Amino acid sequence: MKEDEILARLRDIHIPGEIGAASSAFDFALWPIVAFALFVLAIIAARVWRARRWRALARADLAHILTETDASEQWARLLTFAQGLSARSNQAVALPAVAFHRPEHITTEQRSQFVAFLREQLRR
Question: Which of 75, 83, 87 minimizes the C-alpha distance to 115?
Answer without folding.
Answer: 75
